[in-house]
Amino acid sequence: MIKDTIAAISTGMTNSGIGKVRMSGPQALEIADKVYRSPKGKTHLLHADSHTIHYGYIYDGEQLIDEVLVLIMRAPRSYTTEDMVEIDCHGGVVVMKKILETAIKYGARPAEPGEFTKRAFLNGRIDLTQAEAVIDVINAKNEYALSSSVKQLRGNVLEKIRQIRKNIIGNVAFIEAAMDDPEHINADDFGEELKVSVEENIKAIQKLLDSADNGRMIREGIKTVIVGKPNAGKSSLLNSLVGDERAIVTDIAGTTRDTLEESINIHGIPLNIVDTAGIRETQDVVEKIGVTKAKTFAQDADLIIYVVDGSTPLDENDREIMDMIRDKKAVILLNKIDLDLQTTKEMLENMTQHPVLEISAANQQGLEDFEALIRDMFFGGKLSFNDEIYITNIRHKEALSQALESLNLVLDSICAGMPEDFFSIDLMNAYDVLGGMIGESAGEDLIDTIFSDFCMGK
Ligand code: GDP
């Protein structure tokens, strides 16, 4: 049982139009009642109905602090399922702080980051995947990330995992029953039956895992590297793509020394382009070609854009780059088509399976086709944003991988003709890790870690 009442400023700590101070816990209404006065002094919040809004003033003793609206939400119909009070005040940092201090003075305790959502979880209103989705909704960098997080918030990942767990526990129960009561339940053919069920669960988990890479790309952006020989037009391409969007471009300090990432949006798809400008500037002769360094970047890129200078003939370096990108997701751009071409689209197509497009980076020609291609590559046909479930969280991905491993062990045991009780151990392992994923057996440390990622007041 949670006995204390927490309070926090839930809006940003900058001056803005309105601000919100929230309280949750058994004393929320009592504290609100002590600090609030209605215009005629007649309304008492202690007895106010749930889901009502009250106009008035916040006082600390006789000192008037602000003119406010107070929202009352009684347990269990609130975000945390506890009694909650939201004070809508003016959005000045000083006034919000003063209201928070007054709430604390009259009995509330300052909330930890994420503590409101933690209470919603501990009180059973939401599961862990939904709680994590709250963070993702707040941090969503683009529409796709937002839509995926909101779906997770509504519980679609939870439902899927619950279903798989239900199947697994069904299998375990059947094995136990067959062992307890061999006369009535025939366990002889059970191996085959179990195999079918385990394979179904494996397929479902695999599908979720497959979505994880797309999920990560949606959340963090598609890691993109532009490669090509010096003067092919890499910087020109980047500048053209960034173009009018300059205003929304952000520089993210890269994880690799001396690299920067430019974030651009193509049809709402976030591309984080590693700016390889540094490659060109190095003094090292080999590095000047850029192939060595580009290789390192390319290894863990989601997408490679290979820019070829059409006004020069192909050489060894181009062949080396083609080799390097063979097994990657890549697009080849034949640049400078406004000049006399020494290299043609056909030549390139003969060297690679990847799509080849003609562009002129300097003249902004062919870029629309390129953008359409990117969109189709990632979202066309293969993926649908309407009903797919995306795994966007690394913790979920790890849990799913572990569950998959355990279920594969069950399959191995069945094929090897092991006794039934062998199956149960691995089935229960899978059941437990999936439970951890949705918080149905999550350890306290894990829960604390998850919630400490939250912002204040959420
Ligand atoms: P990088 O070394 O690959 O980054 O190449 P840059 O973007 O710096 O371009 C090298 C040179 O090629 C510059 O002088 C550009 O103006 C020129 N250039 C780039 N794209 C085109 C193009 O489409 N047409 C023509 N004619 N010149 C281009």
TrEMBL record:
According to its UniProt entry, this protein's organism is: Candidatus Scybalocola faecigallinarum
Chain residues that bind K(+): 231, 250, 252, 255
GO annotation (BP), single: tRNA methylation
Q: Which residues bind GTP?
A: 231-236, 250-256, 275-278
Recorded protein name is tRNA modification GTPase MnmE
What does the record give as cofactor?
K(+)
An example of a Gene Ontology cellular component annotation for this protein is:
cytosol
Major site of localization recorded for this protein: cytoplasm
Q: Which CDD domains match?
A: trmE, TrmE_N
Protein EC: 3.6.-.-
Q: What does the similarity note say?
A: Belongs to the TRAFAC class TrmE-Era-EngA-EngB-Septin-like GTPase superfamily. TrmE GTPase family.
Which amino acid positions bind Mg(2+), per UniProt?
235, 256
- Give yes or no: UniProt keyword Acetylation: no
Question: What is the superkingdom listed in this entry's lineage?
Answer: Bacteria
Location relative to the cell: Cytoplasm
What gene name does this entry carry? Answer: mnmE
Q: Which function does this protein serve?
A: Exhibits a very high intrinsic GTPase hydrolysis rate. Involved in the addition of a carboxymethylaminomethyl (cmnm) group at the wobble position (U34) of certain tRNAs, forming tRNA-cmnm(5)s(2)U34.
Q: Which NCBIfam families match?
A: mnmE_trmE_thdF, PRK05291.1-3, small_GTP
Subunit structure of this chain's protein: Homodimer. Heterotetramer of two MnmE and two MnmG subunits.
GO MF, one term, reads: GTP binding
